[in-house]
């Protein structure tokens, strides 16, 4: 499942969900990693963003993005209904606030496939809920090869994405974790390890005080 109605992770202790962000230059692999993590872990669900860009072949409204007109996007943003929003390549993207906050409160983890601008806003608005990962390509040559291989964009768009990649990568220090995506399977395993560790952080386990007191009461 990749929507915010997926079942919450079940555990002995009640836990607040976390926001796991994956960012990278276009073509470095964050979307492939995201899909694999979602397929293998039922405890995490995908945040479905609003966007003003048109759908790409195979994309479905409400599953991949909420495709909305610019006027609707601006209305939701003006009303404070987005956790983050940014302009990327002449289009606007944003995360609706209500479904994410509901998921976190119920113990679900939420995965974000967003850029550094959106990550900065999430860090400002909800830092304690955030774990951020930046995915780097092995080389610029490999990044360009992957952009051509996926055949989603024109040559002009590929050149624009390559030109922008350097600026995007300059923000790597703002992230909690860095993965160099030499191999997809290894990168997916790294993200799964990060997720497992973040779930065990003390501050996310909401019932620890009462749990430990109960343990001590039986000692």
Short note summarizing the structure:
Helix content is 42%, strand content 19%. The protein is built from eight helices and nine strands.
What class, by secondary structure content? alpha/beta
Oligomer: single chain
Q: Give the SSE string.
A: EHEEEHEEHEHEHHEHH
Strand content: 15-25%
CATH fold annotation: Rossmann fold
Q: Report the biggest beta sheet as strand number plus sense, adding barrel if it closes.
A: 5 strands, parallel
Radius of gyration: 18 Å
> What is the assigned CATH homologous superfamily?
P-loop containing nucleotide triphosphate hydrolases
> Count of DSSP helices?
8
How many structural units, i.e. domains?
A: 1
Q: On the 0-100 scale, what is the average pLDDT?
A: 89
| Principal-axes shape call | globular
Strand order of the largest sheet: 2-7-1-8-9
Q: Indicate the low-confidence ranges by residue numbers.
A: 6-11
Distance between the termini: 42 Å
CATH class: Alpha Beta
Keywords summarizing the entry:
five-stranded parallel β-sheet, Rossmann fold, globular, single chain, 219 residues, 8 helices, alpha/beta, four-stranded mixed β-sheet
């Amino acid at each position: 499942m990749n929507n915010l109605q997926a079942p919450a992770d079940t555990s002995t202790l009640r836990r607040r969900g976390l926001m796991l962000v994956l960012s990278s230059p276009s073509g470095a692999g964050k979307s492939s990693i995201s899909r694999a993590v979602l397929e293998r872990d039922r405890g995490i669900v995908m945040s479905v963003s609003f966007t003003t860009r048109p759908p790409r072949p195979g994309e479905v409204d409400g599953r991949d993005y909420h495709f909305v007109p610019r006027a609707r996007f601006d209305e939701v943003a003006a009303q404070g209904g987005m956790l983050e929003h940014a302009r990327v390549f002449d289009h606007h993207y944003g995360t609706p606030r209500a479904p994410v906050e509901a998921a976190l409160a119920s113990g679900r983890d939420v995965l974000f496939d967003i850029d550094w601008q959106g990550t900065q806003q999430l860090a400002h608005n909800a830092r304690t809920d955030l774990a951020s990962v930046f995915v780097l390509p092995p080389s610029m040559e490999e990044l360009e090869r992957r952009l051509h291989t996926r055949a989603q964009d024109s040559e002009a768009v590929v050149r624009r994405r390559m030109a922008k990649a350097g600026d995007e990568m300059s923000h790597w220090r703002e992230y909690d974790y860095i993965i160099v995506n030499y191999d997809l399977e290894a990168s997916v395993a790294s993200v799964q390890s990060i997720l497992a560790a973040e779930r065990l952080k003390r501050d996310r386990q909401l019932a620890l005080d009462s749990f430990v007191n109960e343990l001590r009461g039986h000692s």
